[in-house]
Design a protein that fits this description.
By secondary structure, the protein is of the alpha/beta class.
Length: about 450
């Protein structure tokens, strides 16, 4: 199932962010005893027993007054329930069942999505006894856990991944039977995704079909242009709902995550008048962590005032500083409304698709890389010299390379970055993340 998404919901201060950090195995969400710390939505990727899924940490709102609070939290939960495939409903055994928990449980019961009730902060036998009152909420699956220590999370994850099906989606094929490239248009609201899609669609009339969303409002458009054939996944169709002004961003993020899971290459739009924001950097790094090719399209370039010879160059430099260390990414300045350079963007996306599927023969790879390693050998570790004897490309979707050596643990990140830079200088992997693994010889 492409892009299985799990949302963590619950009232403030029950430990949602602590659970989120444990699932994605990094400290990304800020954790504090003060309620309402998580205002921005956090999203990450979790992996349990080889099954990978997206996790979204929703904020519990701070109450101004009871009715405002209920309305806000209801809005948040409705979005999570609409968009996620499974809900983790987190409660706190230290406070017991509160009115807000009951309120949220009512919303979740009306949903058809699977809900796992997670009773948090069960870290001693006395609390385990108190936690039994949560069975009265009537959810089929109830788990007693402690997010901080991790106890009980294994059983929770086993149940969670049992909902992820193994079936692969069927790819659309070209006339030779090869899977068609899939490009996703992603980016923040108002970056111009709809305008770009319309510009591409209206320009040529040789579109084969418009297949309405296979998953929740993403539109798959099958293209045949200039002898090129591909599928375009559009995430622009965000459902307009009442009161989603500040939640529009949340919708678009979940849409972007879903589209990324399906795509080979992400065409990411950045609004030139706003610049590369922290949210853009988050979406970009999520795409690279998922191993997708990326082309950055700086849209609305026609609206940038007082352009000079070096304006584009300086802008590109600023973007690369923000997305480093992975800066080998094509950046194209376009105007979707004026239809300027939009087809150059498509050409680049096809090029990045080819780069992502590039395979290098072991003999050629060894000839080139072992010479580079000889000229600049890895630093010594614990008094031993590290010798790399052999290297090869690993057969994976994302370009990955294994280097076989006598002390794989002795090779640290800076040397891996050196190897990656050398690979990029000899072979064209522009726009594609490259992964490097050290193996015991």
């Amino acid at each position: 199932m492409p892009g299985f998404t799990v949302a963590i919901v619950g009232r403030p201060n029950v430990g949602k962010s602590t659970l989120f950090n444990r699932l994605i195995e990094e400290r990304k969400a800020i954790v504090d005893d003060v309620s309402g710390v998580t205002r921005d939505r956090q999203y990450g990727i979790a992996d349990w027993n080889g099954k990978v899924f997206n996790v979204i940490d929703t904020g519990g709102f701070v109450a101004r007054s009871e009715d405002v609070f209920e309305r806000e939290i209801r809005k948040q939960v409705h979005i999570a329930v609409d968009e996620a495939d499974l809900i983790l409903f987190v409660c706190d055994t230290a406070t017991g069942i509160t009115g807000q928990d009951t309120e949220m449980a009512d919303v979740l019961r009306r949903s058809t999505k699977p809900v796992l009730l997670v009773v948090n902060k069960v870290d001693n036998s006395e609390r385990a006894l108190y936690a039994t009152e949560f069975y009265s909420m009537g959810f089929e699956h109830t788990f007693m856990i402690s997010s901080i220590s991790g106890s009980g999370t294994g059983e929770l994850l086993d149940e969670l991944v049992s909902h992820i099906s193994d079936e692969e989606e069927t790819a659309e094929l070209d006339k030779d039977g090869n899977p068609l490239p899939k490009f996703a248009i992603i980016g923040q609201p108002n970056a111009g995704k709809s305008t770009l899609l319309n510009a591409l669609v209206n320009q040529e009339r040789t579109i084969v079909s418009d297949v309405a969303g296979t998953t929740r409002d993403t539109i798959h458009t099958h293209y045949k242009l200039f002898g090129k054939e591909f599928v375009l996944i559009d995430t622009a169709g965000i459902r307009k709902k009442k009161n989603v002004h500040e939640d529009l961003e949340f919708y678009s993020v979940i849409r972007a995550i879903r589209a990324m899971d399906e795509a080979d290459v992400c065409m990411m739009l950045v609004d030139a008048s706003v610049g590369m924001t922290a949210q853009d950097v988050s979406i970009f790094s999520l795409a690279t962590r998922k191993g997708k090719g990326v082309v950055l399209l700086v849209n609305k370039w026609d609206l940038v005032p007082n352009k000079e010879t070096n304006t584009a160059r300086d802008y590109e430099k600023m973007i690369k500083e923000k997305i480093s260390p992975f800066t080998d990414v094509p950046i194209i300045f376009i105007s979707a409304s004026e239809k300027t350079r939009i087809f150059q963007g498509m050409e680049k996306a096809l090029e990045v698709f080819d780069n992502r599927n590039r395979r290098i023969t072991t003999s050629v790879f060894n000839d080139i890389m072992l010479k580079e390693i000889e000229n600049f050998p890895p630093p010594m570790t614990r008094g031993y010299s590290v010798k790399i004897k052999f290297a090869q490309q690993v057969p994976t979707h994302v370009p990955s390379f294994a280097f076989f050596c006598n002390h794989p643990d002795g090779i640290k990140e800076p040397y891996k970055n050196f190897l990656e830079n050398k690979i990029r200088s000899h072979f064209n992997f522009s726009g594609v993340p490259v992964r490097i693994f050290m193996r015991q010889k």
